[in-house]
C-alpha cells in the first residue's frame, strides 16, 4: 500500500512537473514569435516562468529522493565495509531526515506568511507565490517520509544480515 501511494504521488508530481516545464517552453516560444513577428511581448512572462520552474524543481525532488538518483561524490565511503559502512549510511540518512524536517518547517512558515498576506511576485503580472512555497513544503515533507523509510530499510537490512559485506 505504501509503495502504491508512493508511486501515485511520484507519477502525479512528475506529470505536473512535465506540464509546468512544457508550459514554460510554450510561453518562451510564444513570446519570441509574438515579439519578433508582431512587436507584442507577453506581459509577466518572466514571473510566470520563474514560478513554474521553481514549482517543477520542487515537484521533481521526491522522485529523485525515492530512487536515490542524486548526484553523489563518493571518494571515501565507497571503500568502507561492514559496520562502518552501515554507520555511514545511517548518518547520511539521519542528516537527510533532519535537513528535510528543517526545510519542511521553514517552507511551511514561508507558505503561511505568503498565504496570509496574499503575496504575489513583483513585476508586470501579479502571480501568487504561495503555491510554489506550498510545493516546496510538500516536496520536503515527502522527502522526509522517504528518509524515514530509507532509515527503516537500513535497520531491517542490518538486522537480517549477520555479516554485512
From the spread of the alpha carbons, the general shape counts as elongated
Determine the fraction of residues in helical runs and give it as a percent range: over 70%
Report the total helices: 4
SSE series? HHHH
Overall pLDDT, averaged?
Answer: 82
Q: Given the helix and strand composition, which structural class is it?
A: mainly alpha
User: How many β-strands, per DSSP?
Assistant: 0
The N- and C-terminal alpha carbons lie at a distance of 31 Å
Q: Work out the strand percent.
A: under 5%
Radius of gyration: 21 Å
Poorly predicted parts: none
How many distinct domains?
A: 1
Q: Mind describing the biggest β-sheet?
A: none
Give the SSE map.
Elements: H1 2-38, H2 45-66, H3 82-116, H4 130-160
Helix pairs in contact: 1-2, 2-4, 3-4
Transmembrane segments: 12-39, 51-71, 83-105, 134-156
Subunit structure: The complex comprises the extracytoplasmic solute receptor protein and the two transmembrane proteins.
Membrane topology: Multi-pass membrane protein
Amino acid at each position: 500500500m505504501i509503495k502504491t501511494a508512493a508511486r501515485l504521488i511520484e507519477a502525479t508530481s512528475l506529470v505536473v512537473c512535465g506540464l509546468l516545464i512544457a508550459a514554460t517552453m510554450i510561453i518562451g516560444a510564444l513570446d519570441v514569435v509574438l515579439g519578433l513577428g508582431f512587436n507584442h511581448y507577453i506581459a509577466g512572462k518572466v514571473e510566470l516562468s520563474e514560478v513554474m520552474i521553481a514549482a517543477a524543481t520542487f515537484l521533481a525532488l521526491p522522485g529523485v529522493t525515492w530512487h536515490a538518483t542524486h548526484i553523489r561524490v563518493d571518494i571515501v565511503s565507497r571503500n568502507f565495509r561492514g559496520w562502518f559502512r552501515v554507520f555511514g549510511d545511517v548518518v547520511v540518512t539521519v542528516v537527510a531526515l533532519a535537513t528535510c524536517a528543517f526545510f519542511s518547517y521553514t517552507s511551511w512558515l514561508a507558505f503561511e506568511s505568503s498565504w496570509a498576506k496574499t503575496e504575489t511576485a513583483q513585476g508586470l503580472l501579479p502571480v501568487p507565490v504561495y503555491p510554489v512555497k506550498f510545493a516546496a513544503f510538500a516536496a520536503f515533507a515527502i522527502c522526509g517520509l522517504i528518509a524515514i523509510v530509507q532509515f527503516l530499510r537500513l535497520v531491517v537490512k542490518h538486522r537480517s544480515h549477520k555479516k554485512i559485506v
